[in-house]
Amino acid sequence: MRIAVLADIHANLEALEAVLERISGLHVTGIVCLGDIVGYNANPNECVDLIKSNDITCVAGNHDVVASGIEDPVRFNQLARIAIGWTREHLTDVNRQFLEKLPRQQQIHDFMTFHGYIHDTDRYLFNADDARNNFQLLAGLAGHPWLGFFGHTHVKTVFADENGIKEAGPALEVSLSPATRYLINPGSVGQPRDLDPRASFLIYDADESRITFHRVEYDIQSCQEKILRAGLPTRLAERLVTAGLRGSL
Fold first, then answer.
1. Domains in the chain, please, with CATH?
2. Model pLDDT for residues 137-170, shown as the tens digit of each residue
3. 14 DSSP 8-state letter
4. Where are the beta strands (DSSP E) in 79-187?
5. Whole-angstrom distance, CA of residue 67 vs CA of residue 73
6. What is the pTM of this model?
7. Secondary element (H or E) of residue 82
8. Whether the Cβ atoms of residue 40 and residue 11 lie closer than 8 Å to each other
9. H-assigned helices in 140-196
10. 100 in Cβ contact with 70 (< 8 Å)
11. Residue 227: left if φ>0, alpha if ψ -120 to 50, beta else—which one?
12. How far is the C-alpha of 249 from the C-alpha of 76, rounded, in Å?
């Protein structure tokens, strides 16, 4: 089994198309998305349509929840509120209903998928304390999954629960031990925040017990031009190049 894991697309059609093209040559058996299909960028409907047409299994991100109208953007900063207001105005009813029905967490095979914390879509999983809390939550779930994939931070990360919480370095490949539990973030497709503007995703190879991270070039300029034509804040276009700031909604 080889699963592609995506997160934080944020209505960036150019990035999503580039990632799906790369994945098409990697012989995967499925694709999962960890939420935030929409928000920030100018192609929410097209990105939701690609998720549906490619049969991608998805959980809800905080932007998906707010865009669908389930919650209001009370925790969002000004940029995010402006973008989600625009998104609400432009989403089709069909795609809004799709986002509304997304689960907050889902177990697939031997792993769990969620957006922020396992029990809180809005909360960031940044550091060892956050990881420790989520390992405890993971252990309490039915079936006791040993592997959790999360998004929300837009930064590729690997936490291992092995004689204390350990965070792996910037390796492109990580071998997994069946005796260890892991929490892994694939990075962001549509708005990376790790000072590398290329779209990010990972491949989980269950047969080889290995995670492989991938980065993909895409047409950033086209995405930026759409943001500006839509009347969205200029800062949203700029941060696609500057890679944003870690910790910003």
1. 2-242 (3.60.21.10)
2. 998 887 778 999 999 999 999 999 987 788 876 6
3. H
4. 105-108, 111-114, 147-149, 157-161, 165-167, 173-175, 181-185
5. 9
6. 0.94
7. helix 78-90
8. yes
9. none
10. yes
11. alpha
12. 6
